[in-house]
Structure formats: structure tokens, C-alpha cells
Amino acid sequence: MAGIYVHVPFCRKACIYCDFHFSTALAAKSDMVAAIVKEIALRRTYLDDEVLNSLYFGGGTPSLLDQVELEQIMEAVHKNFRFAEGAEITLEANPDDLNRDKLDTLKKAGVNRLSIGVQSFREADLAFMNRTHKAGEAITAIKQAQDTGLDNISIDLIYASPGLTDMDWLANMEQAIALEVPHISAYSLTVEEKTVLAHKIRKGEVQAVADETAQRHFLMLERLHEAGFEHYEVSNLARKGREAVHNSNYWSGKTYLGIGPSAHSFNGNSRQWNVAKNAFYIKALRQGIPCWEKEDLSLKDQYNEWVMTQMRKKKGVFLEELETRFGKSMKAYFLKEAASEIGKGNVLLEEGLVHIPQDRRFYTDGVAASLFYL
What is the DSSP secondary structure assignment for residue 297, as one 8-state letter? Predict the structure, then answer.
């Protein structure tokens, strides 16, 4: 099955670490929604009439959409695509956007899963990150969502941020456990170019966190394992049966359509990405012209992307599937490259699966890259 991602490129203000495409010019929101609706109709054939099992509203801050705007997009999606019964429909939300009326609106529109950008339950962290909410608002939003019946909740938590001690990080995890959320996305604070955080580090206003601290915080995720979470992807942990359908589609190499400025699409053989300029996107869609660029993926590109996504998962690379997808010669190549990492203890080969042991998973991307076809 396939999925659709809808990028809503608006935020009330910029987080210090964010390099996603967004704008704080909210006056253009209604025009953007009209353009998104138009693109949905124009790209209805991209997924070859596949039945969809996920719809994901990301951003930006999709919880800024009002009831009419959300319903317009929902109507367009259901008019042009076929969804499986019980398909996962996720909306990213900031805690300060969520109240009982908003939650009722989301549920009525068909949203059945929330991804709430908590980031931290510490006020000092939220102030440093330039978040719009307070810690208490995050706790209240989660509890109200559960009371409303929207209890399929994922929360984002950031570790290895300046000033976050080991005890602080443990306290954040304990608070998430106490709130009984079924899914947690845990990310190390990364320094992306052209962000406020990168600028502050260059000026010496903020001290970059050492890799040793980030690795230690990653290993402390063991507390969530003890609480019943499976670390099914390097940055994602879930209680049994609560894994993210949409993101699992990405990691399994399934096709998806990206709608909205900067959104990416993938059909197995090529990748497309929309222009990352709101005004240009709106103007083009008014004229009925989807504005995207395309890259045809070589066999090498497909292999490398697949290896990366598989190695990020707990289960790793299933050798039989690798051979089915890419042939015996590529399987032999993979095993040859993996031999070195196996010797270093970075990779294990067990019962036809090649995977990274838990104590080395902090370095997943680097280990996976060593297995690429060059």
C-alpha cells in the first residue's frame, strides 16, 4: 500500500534548530490550502490507483489549519484517492494549538493519530529552542487528546541539547512513560546549516554538545525499552502494534506522494520534489501547473537508499529480500562489505538478517553508508 504526505508550510515562529521549509506569513494560509487542493487533483494518477493506508499532515505546523481548511484538504484527498478501511491519518500538532474544541474538530475531520511536538518537558529547553508552548501545555494537550479518544499519540523528544543533563533526559522519558503515550520519536539535537542554532554556535553564544553526550543519551533510551517500548527504528520507539504506518512505509520502500511546497514523492524508480517557495508554488498551481523536479534513480541509487532505510530499522537487512530486489551479485557485494563491519562488532549476521546491535545503533547512518555500492 502507498501513502500521501501533505506539507503545511506555516509556523507561528521559528524553532532554533529547524531547517524544514516553512513561513511565518500566515496570511497566505488560505491561498496555500487552495493550491494544495489543486495539486491533489492534478496528481491523482501518480500512485496508479493504489489503495492507500496512510495520510500524513506534516510541516511546518499543520495544527494551524482551521476546520474549513482541513476539511477542504480531506475532501480533495478522498475524492481523488482510495483509502483502506482504518487507514492511519496523522496530523502533526503543537501543544498550544490543541484544546478540546480543536481536538473534536480533528477527530470529526478523520484524524486518528496525533504527532505532538513536545520536544521537552523542561521549560529551560523549550525557551532555548524558541518553542511556542510551555511544558504544562504539552501535558494538558496529551491528556485532553486521550480524553477525546485521540489516544493514538506520538510525541517528539529531543536529547543532547545544551543544558540537558542525564537526569533531565531521564526525567523527560519518565514523564512520557507516565503519560502512557504509545509512540515516541527521540532525536538527537543536530546542528543544520542556515539555522539559528548553527549561527549561535559559530558566534560562540552556544556550546555544541559533544558526541559522547549524544551517544550516552541515546543509550539511555534503554529506559523506554524497560517500559515496554520497542526500538523499531533508530529514532522511533513504540508499544506493540503502535508503530507508525506512514513512516514504516518510507522505511519499507513503498511509494508515496508528497503534496505542498518542498514535499517529496517516490514511486520506486524516481524521486520528485516540489519547489520550496510558497509564492511560486501558489502561483503555479493557480495556473494548473505542478512545479516539481525529478530524478530518475539508478540501480545503485535504489540499492543505497534501500540499504540505508533497512539498516535504520531494528530488524535490519533481510538477505532474501535483498536478493529478490537486487539480485545475487548485489547480495554477494553486500555480504562482502558487511564482513568488515561484522569484524568490528558494528553489525551482526543472524538467521538471514544483517542488523546493527543496540549498543552501536547511535552510529547507524555511518555504518549503513559503509555498506553502500560506490
Answer: P
All cell numbers assigned to 75? 475532501
Contact 87, 55 (CB under 8 A): yes
Q: Classify 238 as helix, strand or coil.
A: strand
CB atoms within 10 A of CB 24: 9
Residue 358 to residues 250, 261, 276, Cα–Cα distance (Å): 22, 36, 37
Q: Indicate the pairing of strand 353-355 with strand 183-188.
A: unpaired
For residue 345, say if its preceding peptide bond is cis, omega within 30 degrees of 0: no
Residue 132 neighbours by CB under 8 Å, 6+ apart: 12, 13, 94, 96
Task: Work out the average pLDDT over 79-99.
Answer: 98
Question: pTM of the full predicted structure?
Answer: 0.96
Starting at the earlier edge strand, list the strands of the sheet with 353-355: 317-318, 353-355, 348-350
Q: Residue 215: which H helix or E strand, with range?
A: helix 211-219
Q: CA 77, CA 327: separation in Å to the nearest integer?
A: 37
pLDDT tens across 113-126, in order? 999 999 999 999 99
Q: Vertex 119, ends 116 and 124: CA angle to 5°?
A: 135
Residues 6+ away with beta carbon under 8 Å from 251 = 233, 309, 310, 312, 313
The CA distances from residue 121 to 127, 181, 189, in Å, are: 11, 14, 15
Report the C-alpha gap between 279 and 14 in whole angstroms: 19
Residue range 14-70, pLDDT digits in tens = 999 999 999 999 999 999 999 999 999 999 999 999 999 999 999 999 999 999 999
**Could you give the CA distance from residue 260 to residue 275 in angstroms, rounded to a whole number?**
9
